[in-house]
What we know:
By secondary structure, the chain is an alpha/beta fold. It is built from nine helices and 13 strands.
Amino acid sequence: MNRVARSLLPHAIRPRRILAGPLRGVWLVASWHDYPAGLTGRTERPLLGWFASHVNTGETWLDIGAHYGYTAFALARLVGPPGRVFTFEPVPATAGCVDQGRVLNRFDQVTVLPFGLGAPDTIETRRLPLTRGMADTTLRPADGSASVLVALARFDWLWPRVCGGNPAIHGVKIDVQGMEIETLAGMTGALARWRPKVVVELHAGVSRERLLALMREAGYSEHAVAVDPVRGEDAPLFLDDRSYAFDPA
Length: 249
């Protein structure tokens, strides 16, 4: 959306129902300024279609990079009350919005964790660029631009402390605005043990070579499948702002 047009949209964050699309009627606590594509139901259509084919009732899924909870709530519908969705959102205020949406939608199967995932030994804090309610390391903010102090945790350290005694993982969605390498580096142990389905959205500046090396280290094939494929025989793999699914080797 054009930046000028977006600036004219309401900034008030409050509960609103999604107007159309696969999640029509689901509550999101967000603003029109921050998330018009989510509130109109226009966003993430290929990813939600992939979920529909790969997520099963009763499974445990990780939603890493929740923003206002759009994909977390899509996963919650698919795993149903017997399943679990652990959703990670590093911006504290946005994580609070996701939790409010969880309550409004009666998604008791969703657990909201106000952490970003990275590769510290345990937990660290870091100040990151902030835009439209999300931390985005792909931005290069000028002096005075918005930022937010967030808590980052290594997943392999955190998971035993929050999984409720049931550490099995069936699927992982990662959309972390440039922190893909750090996130994967901190969870290779869990990926190697549980071998879940993994779908990652790639962003500008992220080393594809390093990402593929981490996936191989965790026991995955580097032959990823584009969730939103580009037509044409010569279409390159691993484009920015597109999601790719990885299967265990």
